[in-house]
From TrEMBL:
Record domain Peptidase M3A/M3B catalytic: where: 236-546
Residues of the signal peptide: none
GO molecular function annotations of the record: metal ion binding; metalloendopeptidase activity
Alphabetized InterPro entries for the sequence: MetalloPept_cat_dom_sf, Neurolysin/TOP_dom2, Pept_M3A_M3B, Pept_M3A_M3B_dom
Protein name, UniProt field: Peptidase M3A/M3B catalytic domain-containing protein
PANTHER family to which the protein is assigned, alphabetical: PROTEASE M3 THIMET OLIGOPEPTIDASE-RELATED, SACCHAROLYSIN
Parts forming coiled coils: none
Length: 650
């Protein structure tokens, strides 16, 4: 662990964090980046440098200095955002009044200087590297457009809050033992009366930590089941009682159709419609799709891609549907004849596809071991090597939370698998396995480039109870592979945060999706899955259960269809009511489902709700066409020799 910087040197820490001079030599010490005042001083310095630029006589030098200073100011603001998220700057939870003051100050400097720079032509959008095009767009448009952009952000935040309430579920159902018939005990355990005391820990972990005597007390009595998404995920596939499934399904979707979700979604769609037209696009979908690959650049083309996927998926989907229809006969009052009712769909699919194997595989995914082996697997496939940094620089001395594990990422040998490792460091990865106990809400997993050469990967699994082993669901392991894919990409590209942000969404997600697909292959599962007690690999049938079937992609199609349809000219948000929005969403969903939607169903209660709120990142358009980006694409993706032997050895 490197020593802490002296107070006098600390203001230069900010500069050091945003400017990369080769690979970083030591892990980032958050403690050095915890002062609002020093941060503001660094911003002030960048702003002064910008002001000085206009007095430079050579136009080229002046432009280079101006855009470099503006880029620094932007990087500092971005870094500030990430550090606040990590709780290292600005106060715990929400920002302190003093920090809020500093932030406002820095933002106003940026807005003034940026306007000045664009007016004088010293700062050129899309041409100078490291500049936040989104922000520049917001500053150079007319006030009325800027106001719409502001409104769009607010409406989006409002919809996300409404969705959160729906996902959480606002009520509970009281279910008896016979209502939950067929459900494995570990799935219903936290709903039992005694379960409320330990509800914070995942079901699997409790099963491990409790002795056999603890069990009987939980089996008797009623279960209090929240009507949220987590209960949907457990009950719909595994509960054999058709009436219990119906009660939960209807209560859950009622939360979406009767709550604020539809009206919040409508508000958002209306603002986006006006904003897209103001920016010269026919619809928000047209605006968002523009920076993506040619095949989906227009809404109509994107629709054709979805239609083609659906057609091509038919032969793969048919056998499962056939099996489900056979099982449906006489299975439930909802399904007439061999028709599969929407309420029975997940249950029949689980029966037909042995989804319970999925649960058993968790025994082979103890979190610590899976993390270590997953890093090895991702490293082998991308020709890098992760090494745990001994004497972790976490805890009070450096500002990192004590649960954070630090790894350095080293480059692999130049080509053939046989040659010696170079051990050239590409950067550091900070892995946060568990959600903090005091966290109010579940954080989504994600990878963030904190500063050049430093990536934070927050997996945010629920922590196990004291002394017990955390077991991961197979989806958790896949998520891990996905986020490490982002980390490898961020450190290999070697650019600053803004340069990574400017990559179009499809390019950003390509490497991470590759690792996700890789981690789902049964032969790769055998590499990273080991039984928590015996250490043995999983049997073949279990390893195969991780692979996403055609059903998974069909579900994706339905959710994408809702987002695309509601944002395109097919739906006129300006003249629609919340009920019409729901009907339009169902129609979009139905396009790619052989099973008829239940009358109470709200597609926004599935992933479609999040897709609708978040949208894609459309701000990279100008950067995408720059020669600099093309060079990067070549060197990182197209020209890069892929170590085929290493992949084969997996
Ligand atoms: Zn991703």
């Amino acid at each position: 662990m490197a020593s802490l910087a002296q107070p006098g040197q600390r203001s230069s820490c900010w500069r050091g964090a945003i400017i990369r001079a080769g690979a970083p030599s030591k892990p980032l010490e958050l403690r050095d980046l915890s002062s609002s005042l020093l941060w503001l001083q660094a911003c002030s310095k960048a702003n002064t440098d910008f002001q000085m630029a206009s007095s430079i006589i050579s136009r080229d030098v002046a432009a280079a200095t101006a855009s470099r200073s503006i880029a620094r100011l932007m990087s500092l603001l971005r870094l500030e955002e990430v550090l606040c998220m990590l709780g290292a700057l600005g106060g715990l939870g929400s920002a302190s009044p003093y920090h809020s003051f500093c932030r406002r100050k820095a933002k106003s400097w940026l807005a003034t200087s940026l306007r000045q720079g664009m007016k004088s032509g010293l700062v050129r959008p899309g041409k100078d590297p490291g500049l936040d095009v989104k922000l520049m767009l917001r500053i150079c448009v007319e006030d009325s457009t800027a106001e719409l952009m502001e409104k769009e952000q607010l409406a989006k935040a409002h919809l996300l809050r409404a969705l959160d309430i729906g996902f959480e579920g606002s009520g509970t159902l009281s279910l008896s033992e016979s209502d939950l018939v067929g459900m494995p005990e570990e799935l219903r355990r936290d709903w039992a009366a005694a379960g409320w005391f330990t509800g914070a820990y995942s079901a699997h972990n409790q099963k491990l930590s409790e002795g056999s005597t603890g069990r009987s007390s939980l089996c008797a009595g009623k279960y209090t089941v929240p009507t949220g998404r987590d209960s949907m995920d457990r009950i719909m596939p595994y509960c054999a009682s058709a009436s219990a499934r119906q009660r939960l399904f209807e209560a859950y979707h009622q939360g979406f159709s009767a709550g604020e979700v539809n009206s919040a979604a409508l508000d958002l769609l209306r603002v986006r419609q006006s904003l897209a037209r103001r920016l010269g696009f026919r619809s928000w979908a047209a605006y968002e799709l523009r920076p993506l690959a040619a095949a989906v650049r227009e809404p109509d083309a994107a629709r054709q891609v979805l239609d083609r996927c659906w057609q091509h998926a038919q032969p793969a989907l048919a056998p499962m549907l056939q099996k489900m229809r056979q099982l449906a006969i006489g299975c439930s009052k909802h399904s007439a004849g061999d028709e599969v009712a929407h309420i029975d769909e997940a249950y029949l699919r689980a029966l037909a596809s042995r989804e319970s194997d999925h649960l058993k595989l968790a025994e082979f995914l103890p979190a610590e071991g899976a993390l270590k082996r997953m890093l090895e697997t991702v490293g082998r496939a991308s020709n890098v090597f992760f090494r745990h940094v001994p004497g972790q620089p976490t805890g009070i001395a450096t500002g990192w939370h004590s649960g954070v594990r630090v790894y350095e990422m080293l480059d692999g040998p130049p080509s053939a698998a046989g040659s010696a490792r170079q051990d050239r460091r590409l950067g550091f990865v900070y892995v946060d396995l568990y959600q903090r106990r005091w966290a109010r809400r579940q954080l989504a997993p994600g990878a963030v480039l904190i500063a050049p050469g430093h990536v934070y990967v927050g997996l945010h699994y629920q922590a196990p109870s004291y002394g017990s082993t955390k077991l991961l669901a197979p989806e958790d392991a896949i998520t891990m592979a996905h986020e490490f894919g982002h980390a490898v990409h961020m450190l290999c590209m070697g650019g600053c945060m803004q340069e990574y942000d400017d990559l179009p969404l499809d390019v950003q997600e390509l490497p991470s999706t590759f690792f996700e697909v890789l981690a789902a292959q049964s032969s790769v599962v055998e590499e990273y899955a080991r039984h928590h007690a015996s250490g043995g690999p999983p049997p073949d049938t279990l390893a195969r259960s991780v692979q996403q079937g055609p059903q998974f992609f069909a579900r994706k199609l339905r959710n994408l269809s809702v987002g695309l349809g509601l944002h395109s000219e097919e739906f006129d948000a300006g003249n629609a009511s919340p009920r019409e929005l729901q009907a339009a969403a169902v129609a979009q969903w139905q396009r790619y489902s052989p099973i008829k939607a239940h009358p109470g169903f709200s597609p926004l209660g599935e992933d479609a709700g999040m897709y609708l709120a978040l949208g894609a990142n459309q701000e990279a358009a100008k950067r995408w066409l720059s020669p600099e980006f093309a060079t990067r694409l070549r060197s990182q993706l197209l020209d890069r020799p892929f170590p085929g032997q290493r992949l084969a050895s997996l």
